């Protein structure tokens, strides 16, 4: 968590909120324009906050990413990173499309299998996995990423007890991350390759993976190149099946137009936030798109000018990619009902809008940051347009329970009973940090499907609760 040591200053009255208008998928725009009454009824009936999830948009994103990899000339197996959203509908869509799933716990693995994803398309990540997860993974022929020699020995034991061979990726630290808590050092990696040869009756080395923070295509391509070299070295030392390089996730999502984002960064200051909150780091909301990043990774020039994709093809290397947020781009939004408005414009220059729910359902604060795209105001009553600066608070007893610290420039006054819609929250935002605090039930997820061409024909969406078929 990033903590500011600067003493808060009194917020400046009259600071003009900066607009960060969220991008919208056409299907989302259609829902908000033509089916607002349905959304209001769902929020009233199922409670606030309410998460709406759109598996058809997820499916569209899968198709787009597949096209990108095909155009760059590489073979890449897509595994949806399950941790990015708990909704069952996305796993069901992955299974229907022949997409795999990346999991890091036994419950996630069980949900992936129950959703129809075969074990051979499931990757198991996470450090030092327990024996129960190893046993389940081995029995279903999952691909297991291993972080240590001790875990590799435990996985071999699970395979021996099951009478099977476990498919293994060795997660390795890159040259630039010697201090990471994830992955094998160089000496450990070489020892692990040797151990896979010694325990060949129980282990089959399929390749290498790495853990990398951030969204730099160059850094990810450089790390992938190191893993290709590890595959080639493993082949020379008796592991001919080492042909996979898992590049992880790290494909960014564009939430707002780059121009708006750059203007925001140039003007951002603590006075734009409730209590002069001073954030030091934000997600790159107006950066590259996932497709642009994937192309840049594969086209990145290595030594001699050869691209990463060309080198992989020359050596018969297949890639594994684990996007979470990128596959969930525009595939969901979150609605809150306004519970109260504390109008402090005379004294502080802005109001505090309190919603039914909490910031636990908008998880950017888990990362010590704020979710910046502007929420949409859906008013219960009509009124004249006038700027209404306001931050958004949760209804718990925590001073820090701010759904949006930033002062939003609402186009008109906000009233009790109005609805706020936070767009593009499916990726990590809507459920990563949810908690039944104050004994409140976890928010519902409603699955919305148009069918056909995502509502372009005017047909109303069908809805159901996630997990209920």
Summed up, what is this model?
The protein is of the alpha/beta class and 469 residues long. Helix content is 30%, strand content 20%. Strand 5 (143-146), helix 7 and strand 6 form a beta-alpha-beta unit.
Q: Can you walk through the features of this model?
A:
- There is one protein chain.
- The protein has helices at residues 26-34, 36-46, 55-71, 88-97, 106-114, 131-139, 149-162, 186-198, 217-236, 258-267, 290-299, 308-314, and strands at residues 50-53, 76-81, 100-103, 122-124, 143-146, 166-171, 203-209, 244-248, 318-321, 332-344, 350-355, 376-378, 388-393, 402-410, 419-423, 444-449, 462-465.
- With 469 residues, the protein is α/β, with parallel strands linked by helices.
- The protein folds into two domains: 26-53 and 330-465, Lyase, Ornithine Decarboxylase, Chain A, domain 1 (Beta Barrel), CATH 2.40.37; 55-252 and 288-325, Alanine racemase (TIM Barrel).
- Helix 3 (55-71) crosses helix 4 (88-97) and helix 9 packs across helix 11 (290-299).
- The longest helix has 20 residues, at 217-236.
- The protein is elongated.
**The level-1 CATH class of the largest domain:** Alpha Beta
Taken together, the total number of domains comes to 2
CATH architecture of the largest domain: Alpha-Beta Barrel
Low-pLDDT windows of residues = 1-14
Overall, the morphology is elongated
N/C terminus separation: 39 Å
Supply the helix-strand structural class: alpha/beta
